[in-house]
Amino acid sequence: MTAVEAQQVRHLIGKDWVEASSGQTFESRDPHDGSLLGTVARGTSADGEAAIAAARQAFDEGPWPRMAPKERRTILHAVADAVDAHRDELAMTETRDGGKTITQSLHAEIPRVALNLRFFGDYVAMAANEAYPDGDLLSYTLYPPAGVVSAISPWNAPLMLATWKIAPALAFGNTAVLKPAPQTPLTAARFAELALEAGLPEGVLNVVQGFGGDEVAGPLTADPRVDRVTFTGSSATGTKVMAAAAANLTPVSAELGGKSATIVFDDADLDVAVPIALRAVFAGNGQVCLAGTRLLVQNGIREAFLERFTAEARKLKVGDPKEADTFMGPLIEQQHLDKVHGYVDLARSEGGEIVIGGERLSSPGLADGFYYPPTIITGLNNQARTAREEIFGPVETVIGFDTEDEALSITNDSPYGLAGILLTQNLDRAHRLAAHWKAGTVWINCFFERDLRLPFGGEGVSGVGREGGHYSRDFFTEPRAVTMRLRG
Ligand code: NAD
Prior knowledge:
The chain has helices at residues 45-61, 69-85, 87-98, 102-126, 158-171, 186-197, 217-222, 235-246, 270-282, 302-315, 334-349, 385-388, 404-412, 427-436, 469-476, and strands spanning 4-5, 8-9, 11-13, 16-18, 25-29, 36-41, 131-134, 137-142, 148-152, 175-179, 205-207, 228-232, 252-255, 260-264, 292-298, 353-356, 375-378, 395-401, 416-417, 419-423, 441-444, 459-460, 463-464, 480-485. The protein is α/β, with parallel strands linked by helices. The strands form six sheets. A seven-stranded mixed sheet has the order 16-17-18-15-14-20-21, sandwiched between helices. Strand 1 (4-5) and strand 2 (8-9) form a beta hairpin. Helix 2 runs antiparallel to helix 4, helix 2 (69-85) crosses helix 6 (186-197) and helix 3 runs antiparallel to helix 6. Bound molecules: nicotinamide-adenine-dinucleotide. Nicotinamide-adenine-dinucleotide binds next to helix 7 and helix 8.
């Protein structure tokens, strides 16, 4: 039995592909035209518990945690090779399931899936360790795996973010239960199937499908057999996840929402700055946690910059994400489109001016999808709700400023602290601002560049903890101090 057979998507528990214990299903549909892509097992809490039991058994009795890191690396590389070999298929599935453009799926996200696996496989196999010889004492640190990891992921970059969790969890010797978002269940199931074929032992990766805390996700956060919870999603859900995990003192890594600022100074090279600022807010259909959704422009160049920014935004092709030249596809679902449009209406009522966009697209070819255009709002300040709350759509709120101090104070006046994008040619200013920016990541004259050795996470309501490189090791292992007295 396979994961995706005649559009039936099942859970993977141990080595078995199974229906939901309740027999219930839900549908996954293409946000471009509403076509049915999958009928998916709607997991119950019993299904979540069964998956945890399978992961627990694989951890307590199976070979995976006992393998040498280099053996795990070999298998993770084989899984990455399988991802590469199925890149076209996985990319098209991702694009159809979530509306991400095919260019992004094919050239950024699915390659990053393979990179996540290779990077963490290599990292664990080659990691340096500390040892402190001190007279007749020899002390060193061991990094045994934590145990069973629950990985809960969102819909906006489904397999890329799922493997950002799964790859380090498995590389460090843990076993895992993955719950993808219900809007985008397909690639996780296919990935798990490829991983088993590539040699991942049974029970090491389990995948359950379905919804939040009252259903399959409940035990993933609250069951005492779970040793770590790694969660990516909204700040509101992250709060619930942390509260549930607190009952067992289970450590949680939470990568949450954002309301990041792009700051453009009058010394910026506009040929560089305009495309970066555009990509920062409109790529990924605006459904990117790191998006620069507050555009702070120094008043001296505000008009000139906005003119170019708006002109370029008008040129972005919004349409079928399967076409190679499309820049923005549809939003994920009707409810989300309503939320995004609701914020634009709110901006109007708060006195904002909608410079471009602001209405759902319903031209021929787009009417059956959840299409929303690049939308630029001026005339509001940083206290407006569109500037404070995460909209998670292609909506930019433009705010002027005069001085560096003013820019920094507006930027940092936010409950979020995920990322920042700085466009300037002044080196001193760049490093001064990076040092004081309330953000887990600051990009200077670039956007979305990721070195997987660096910490990734957010401040404030944007998250708790960091993952990446040795930060992932700290989270996915239980560091142990060993001291031995040597006999002379
Ligand atoms: P969401 O919080 O609604 O759902 C995320 C996941 O949590 C889904 O799998 C969902 O089914 C599950 N879930 C829902 N309720 C739960 C509960 N009570 N217990 C356990 N799991 C539960 O988020 P979303 O709409 O899927 O994703 C968009 C959000 O994710 C945005 O806020 C975005 O900023 C954020 N995000 C953050 C990052 C980051 O790295 N910081 C990356 C991508 C997305």
